[in-house]
Amino acid sequence: MDAVRLIVTSRRALATGGGVPDLLTEVWQAQALAQAIGSRLALVGPPQLRDEATGLADLAGHGIGVLDRTPLDSGEPRAARLTELGDTRACLMHLGGLLGDVGIALVGIACAADDEATYWSCVEAIDAAEEARDRVRDMLRKLADREAAPPRREAV
Predict the structure, then answer these.
(1) Which residues have C-beta within 8 Å of that of residue 82, sequence separation ≥ 6?
(2) Which end of the chain has fewer CB atoms within 10 angstroms, the N or the C?
(3) Cα-Cα-Cα-Cα dihedral sign, residues 39, 40, 43, 47
(4) Using one digit for the tens of pLDDT, what is the confidence trace for 11-63?
(5) Distance between CA atoms of 155 and 109, rounded to whole angstroms?
(6) Residue 1's pLDDT band (cuts 50, 70, 90)
(7) Is the dihedral of CA 11, 13, 16, 19 positive or negative?
(8) pTM of the model
(9) Residue 134: φ, ψ to 5°
(10) Helices 88-112, 20-44: inter-axial angle, 10-degree rounding
(11) Segment (H or E) for 25
């Protein structure tokens, strides 16, 4: 499935999340999708984005790890359905929005947390989501810079 479609599906699921367990599951799903997109960009994306894409995958993986929660259903993660990235710019713009939604959801969960462990896990996951979003912004800037640069002329 196309990355943008999966991102839109994740954003909708986060928006309609429900209780804390459901929201944490959707945050996990979103972070897994960000990790998969970062990994795919690192392998087949534009060469100038590959380092940032590797960092994005690592940060999203950290966000998954601090939550220590797998999806409630036993099916495969939404990210496993990723088959193509499509337009890199559109993919990154949508992914940045998803990571922003993840941060907002985690703030709400942290504010309502009954225990310190959940609170601090959310804080660490918020940091990972924000750093991942920063990587996405950096990649979008690099794409814009590449498009704005005048074409290179070959020597005659």
Answers:
(1) 1, 3, 6, 33, 36, 37, 40
(2) C
(3) negative
(4) 999 999 788 888 998 999 999 999 999 999 999 999 999 999 999 999 999 99
(5) 59
(6) confident
(7) negative
(8) 0.90
(9) -60, -40
(10) 150
(11) helix 20-44
